[in-house]
């Protein structure tokens, strides 16, 4: 899907950039910007110097004053060394600034994306925030790198414009208007502006379609990356179901979109590249042709002619900055819009969370000084507003064990509501303040790394002793994994689902939270194994409160109470 440009995206991105320039690292950033400006001034000064050096060289060649050549060679060697040094230092400072700005902006978006489960909630909301990982990893890189590069080239172009207008005015003199006796002072300057203006107008006209096609291509490229990454993440399930053919067809469809976007961009490039090639080929010749009559009339030396031609090229190149950078401007604009759209949607989500009051259509999680969990008039809806669960009043005491069964859509929505991931509905959930809670989903998250890190997640590994790790694995029925505590694997692929669920339980035995919410996390076990695991859980964590969502019958004896959830009956 091609992105829709967000109104004011450029202004909001500029506001985000101003925050960067004024944050705690502002003096390093401002120092880098100042140094970048000074180095750009040095580049312009060297360009002016080489212009006058060319003038002296061609005047010496015209006059055949060979004694000047050694001196001019030494001057050129100095200019050459200074140019290399300034360019290298400029590149280093520019790349430092690009990377530092990218780091700051990445941390800013990650802070919002990873706060209060926004990375999950955004998936359930409409808006321009598809592929947030790609926006953070790729679009921030493009926006920051290209913005700094464009800012530098624009400053350089403006400085060149101001410097070489003066040089061209000084060397071009005046020329008669053909067929009249009227003299045109600084005619080469006027010719440069007309040449560059005509080129810019035609370039912008030809490049309008390039902006649209570049935006579309970036969007379909992101969709292709996301589709392939999703296939990689679910490769085991795809292999078990022999779904490779379907995935290939899906990837081909996505690549077909990329191909169409590429071909559209190619057509857009054809016009502007053809024009730019002709424009650039004519540029070195055009000023010599129009200044040649003055040279032949003896009004200017060969050195001045060559300096005028070089100044004309510099001036028109500076004036052609918009056309020359049209592709980069389009790429930067598309990335800026994608970044701002994601940032705005996250800010909207945060404002809704902060501004909503208890009587609004939203589930509210409130801390309570009580030691119990309380549901007050809790009603759950789908994100589209359809009712899921009627008003529920429930009191779960500390140490109680509650079995929750019924409609899977309702039980999972309730599980997510307690975790703060399902805000759609009404009523309150009052959570016991200061009590550690752990949520065990059906498919536990197993980060890549050592088995020790997997069991300790999200805490540091050093928090737990070797003995407690071994005991946790033993209680979960996977003591055979103990010798592999320091092995690093992609554990979500290295072991089957049943073992993954046992690793989730081992994490529970290890971290020993006061409240546990299990979402069908033992349903891969047979009934006997599940019952024995729950009994061991009650024995090892006797004071832990357990709310267990399960569709298995025959487990009621392991719990104090059972809650069955049904959808509300539609009104007649």
Physical arrangement of strands within the biggest beta sheet: 8-11-12-6-13
Radius of gyration of CA atoms, rounded to a whole number: 34 Å
* Amount of helix: 55-70%
Total helical segments = 18
Main sheet characteristics: 5 strands, parallel
Give unreliable regions as ranges.
1-5
The amount of beta strand, in percent, is 5-15%
Number of strands: 13
CATH class of the largest domain: Mainly Alpha
CATH architecture of the largest domain: Up-down Bundle
Mean pLDDT equals: 79
CATH fold naming of the largest domain: ABC transporter transmembrane region fold
Distance between the termini: 41 Å
Name of the CATH homologous superfamily of the largest domain: ABC transporter type 1, transmembrane domain
Protein traits:
572 residues; ABC transporter transmembrane region fold; Rossmann fold; 2 domains; 5-stranded parallel β-sheet; 4-stranded mixed β-sheet; 62% helix; elongated
Description:
This protein is of the alpha/beta class and 572 residues long. It has two domains: 9-354, ABC transporter transmembrane region fold (Up-down Bundle); 364-565, Rossmann fold (3-Layer(aba) Sandwich). The chain has 18 helices and 13 strands. The chain has helices at 9-21, 26-63, 68-113, 118-121, 132-172, 187-233, 235-240, 244-282, 286-296, 302-319, 321-324, 326-355, 408-418, 451-456, 466-475, 491-494, 497-511, 527-540; strands at 174-176, 183-185, 364-368, 373-381, 387-396, 401-406, 425-432, 437-440, 449-450, 488-489, 515-519, 545-549, 561-565. Strands 8-11-12-6-13 form a five-stranded parallel beta sheet, sandwiched between helices. Strands 3-7-4-5 form a four-stranded mixed beta sheet, with helices on one face. A two-stranded antiparallel sheet has the order 1-2. The chain is elongated and about 110 Å long. The relative contact order is 0.09.
């Amino acid at each position: 899907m091609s992105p829709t440009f967000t109104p004011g995206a450029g202004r909001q991105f500029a506001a985000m950039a101003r925050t960067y320039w004024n944050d705690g690292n502002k003096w390093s950033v401002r120092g880098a910007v100042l140094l970048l400006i000074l180095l750009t001034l040095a580049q312009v000064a060297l360009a002016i110097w080489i212009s006058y050096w060319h003038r002296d060289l061609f005047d010496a060649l015209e006059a055949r004053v060979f004694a000047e050549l050694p001196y001019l060679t030494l001057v050129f060697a100095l200019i050459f060394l200074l140019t290399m040094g300034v360019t290298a230092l400029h590149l280093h400072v520019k790349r430092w600034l690009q990377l530092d700005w990218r780091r700051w902006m990445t941390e800013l978006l990650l802070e919002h994306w990873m706060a209060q489960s926004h990375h999950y909630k955004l998936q359930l909301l409409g808006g321009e925030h598809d592929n947030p990982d790609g926006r953070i990893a790729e679009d921030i890189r493009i926006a920051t790198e290209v913005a700094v590069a464009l800012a530098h080239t624009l400053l350089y172009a403006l400085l060149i414009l101001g410097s070489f207008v003066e040089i061209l005015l000084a060397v071009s003199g005046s020329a008669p208007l053909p067929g009249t006796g009227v003299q045109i002072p600084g005619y080469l300057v006027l010719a440069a502006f007309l040449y560059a203006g005509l080129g810019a107008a035609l370039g912008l006209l030809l490049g309008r379609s390039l902006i649209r096609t570049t935006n579309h291509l970036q969007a379909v490229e992101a969709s292709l990356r996301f589709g392939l990454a999703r296939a990689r993440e679910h490769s085991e399930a795809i292999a078990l179901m022999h779904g490779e053919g379907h995935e290939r067809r899906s990837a081909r469809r996505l690549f077909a979109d990329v191909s169409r976007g590429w071909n559209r961009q190619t057509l857009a490039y054809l016009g502007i590249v053809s024009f730019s090639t002709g424009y650039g080929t004519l540029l070195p010749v055009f000023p010599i042709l129009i200044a040649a009559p003055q040279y032949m009339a003896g009004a200017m030396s060969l050195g001045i002619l060559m300096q005028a031609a070089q100044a004309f090229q510099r001036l028109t190149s500076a004036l052609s900055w918009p056309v020359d950078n049209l592709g980069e401007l389009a790429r930067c604009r598309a990335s800026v819009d994608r970044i701002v759209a994601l940032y705005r949607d996250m800010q909207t989500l945060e404002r809704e969370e902060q501004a909503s009051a208890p009587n609004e259509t939203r589930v509210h999680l409130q801390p309570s000084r009580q030691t119990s969990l309380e549901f007050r008039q809790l009603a759950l809806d789908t994100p589209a507003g359809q009712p899921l669960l009627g008003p529920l009043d429930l009191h779960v005491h500390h140490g109680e064990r509650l079995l929750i069964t019924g409609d899977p859509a309702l039980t999972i929505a309730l599980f997510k509501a307690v975790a703060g991931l399902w805000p759609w509905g009404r009523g309150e959930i009052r959570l016991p303040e200061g009590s550690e809670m752990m949520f065990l989903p059906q498919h536990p998250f197993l980060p890549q790394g050592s088995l020790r890190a997997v069991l300790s997640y999200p805490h540091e590994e050093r928090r737990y002793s070797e003995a407690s790790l071994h005991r946790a694995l033993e209680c979960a029925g996977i003591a055979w994994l103990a010798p592999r505590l320091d092995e690093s694997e992609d554990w979500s692929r290295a072991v089957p689902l049943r073992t993954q669920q046992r690793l989730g339980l081992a994490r529970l035995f290890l971290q020993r939270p006061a409240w546990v919410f299990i979402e069908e996390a033992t349903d891969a076990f047979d009934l006997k194994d599940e019952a024995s695991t729950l009994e061991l859980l009650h024995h090892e964590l006797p004071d832990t409160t357990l709310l267990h969502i399960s569709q298995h019958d025959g487990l009621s004896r392991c719990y104090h109470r059972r809650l069955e959830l049904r959808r509300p009956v539609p009104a007649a």
